[in-house]
Amino acid sequence: MKQISRLSHYFTVILLINSTLYLNAQLSDEELDRRAKELVSKMTLTEKASLCSGKDFWTTKPIARLKIPSIFITDGPNGLRKSNVTTGFAGDVVPATCFPTASSLAASWDINLVEEVGKAIGEECQENQVQIILGPGVNIKRSPLCGRNFEYYSEDPVLSGEMGSAWVRGVQSQGVGTSLKHFACNNQEFQRMTVSSELDERTLHEIYLRPFEIIVKKEQPWSVMASYNRINGVYACENNWLLNDLLRDEWGYKGFVVSDWGAVNDRVAGIRARMNLQMPGGSTDQSIINAVNQGKLSESALNQVVADLLRITLKAESLKKENFTYDRDQHHLLARKAGSECIVLLKNENSILPINREEPKKIAVIGSYAKKPRILGGGSSDLVPTKIDIPYDEIVKIAGNNYMFSFAEGYPDKDTLNKVLRARAINLARASDAAIIFAGLPDIYDAEGSDRPNMNLANNVNWLISAIAAVQQNVIIVLYNGSPVTMPWLSEVEAVLLAGLNGQASGGAIADILFGVVNPSGKLAETYPLMLKDNPSFLNFPGENQEVNYGERVFVGYRYYDIKNLETLFPFGYGLSYTTFEYSDIKLSASKIYDTDPLTVSLNVKNTGKTAGKEVVQLYILDYESTYQRPVKELKAFTKVELNPGQSKEIKFLLGYRDFAFYNPVVKDWIVETGDFEVLIGASSQDIRLMEKVHVTATKKWTTPLTRYSLIREWMSHPVGKEIIAPVVEGMVRALLSDQDLPGNPNEMINRSVGDMPIIKLISFSQGMFTIEMLDEMIEQANQ
Predict the structure, then answer these.
(1) Is 562 an active-site residue?
(2) Which residue out of 110, 260, 285, 308 is catalytically annotated?
(3) Could you say which of 201, 311, 643, 677 is the most buried, measured as most Cβ atoms within 10 Å of its Cβ?
(4) Domain count, the chain
(5) pLDDT (average), residues 459-482
(6) CB atoms within 10 A of CB 423
(7) pLDDT tens digits for 696-751?
(8) What pTM value is reported for the model?
């Protein structure tokens, strides 16, 4: 009997193991499609309609009859934000690791680090039975004033796309889905639920859609979140071109689209556009049923929307990890590591940093943020951290016994001068060997729902920094902010550390940088302008009459400052280190290529200092001549390399077609034009160390279709049109010159004038010799 019992126990264990493996097995795309379609075929119209909106604030609707489960979708790009209630945003929130916000993570320029953070967040989702986490946010930082900039990565689409891809890859490696947001052109909080982002097609593709495209094609996030706003007049949640033609047909997206919370305006129109899930739950089921019954919505369109959602629901259910737990201490250590990698050293006069722990000193620590640090932004990413490192405590701990520290609050939370706080801080700084001032933006300025009124720190903060700098020459500033600020006191202080919104371990990360435990390696993911009016969006932000014009076109961030040759406070890609790096030996795999050929770029980077450190190597491309106006240079690749003193490493980049292309709105495609390009290697957008030229020959021949209103200049640059129109233009120029005495170069003058003339105008000047019928025949011949 004992032997039978043991055998029974053995087989029971085997069955349990097999059952667990089955439940957590990754189903193939084909199997997911088959199961989803099979379920749809068994559903009633009412059941199909019910799945198109949430059960409540955070969960989808189950269908018990068909064993369709509910999945949990919740907030948190910088960590999990899961409420214990499903009826709204109120309620207790489950503690989770607060990692640096996207604005800080991007400053690391470290793809592997961001993936590691994403993986940790995925683990926390698994422990808390969350199937999809809402993030990452990859909207472009068009203006420093956007209140949600802390939640976005960069002003550059490639950096945003690569950072977002790493985060998605990390989260989804744990069997948890992501929701790529906010699709698209959600670049301000002002009137975000109604405003129409008005922009041209080229700008849309090259800047604002590009990070989404990179992430969708590389990582296939489980869901994409459609934004509140309109795009050229059409709400994102019912924009068929955006959600269907582009996202699915052109980019090959296989997940589902969820609305931003409360973004749906017309549910039936949304289904026509293949917007799958309305969140939170709403009373739109009957409108869908009525639309199908009345022939206003095809049931096949509804079936497709439901199948998309079911496919991911089944995938999420199959990848659940029961009784999973994560290591809170390890995640906190990762948050500290990430925080230190994200800090940017903006200034370090006289090498005041790192602070030498062997020399006894009195240090005044000033500012309430030293004891109540700002670790995240407000709104949907406002989570409850598992623990918080207090900067003052971490500084005291890491400095050891050689230092005497004292603290002064310095200024109140409100922008008012408090004479008592001010006097104590100044006296403390005067009596010390150095002062570390913690400053930054208040919570309300880095928050969802509203934009900032200006780029300034509070007046009382700026005043206090200058007052302390007047009595203490060794002033170190630590800044907490999610987007650029002005620094009127910059020339008065010795060092500036940009901590950003650096997560729950920011206190320890800051201490590590201040005392040289970690060598700073962060670089700016956005330009810091000297003043707000220098920003390219200044005249067009945030718009009026529920429209905002993206008048700067593709010239966003450093692209604008470059082409205008404007001085900045700190350029894109900038950041200092405690060591120095030398760039050398740039080589291209070929000096001449076709646009379909890959191009390998190699170079050497050497640590020429005395401290181990990391350097972010940035590759930009310059197009010497283009039909369309292009930026002076554009970021195309980057990497972060770690080097010991004296160590050298070879860096390689691989470039392809899109790295040389621009978007042509006429032919609606990415185009490379034959010509010379410069490959630029830099330590920032303004610190170019190496360059090498390559000639690229275009293989894709493109021509603009000619019409009655095409300019003669366009006809003359068209391979077929030129042959047709050249004799006509030559004859017209000759006729005009025969009875006029024109100064200078008359041929050049006439050609310029004629070149800008629509071809249809030749009919008026030909005195009946050139007719509309002749023109239409020429157009047909040219466009064959």
Answers:
(1) no
(2) 260
(3) 311
(4) 4
(5) 97
(6) 12
(7) 999 988 778 899 999 888 888 787 888 888 887 777 666 655 555 555 555 565 56
(8) 0.93
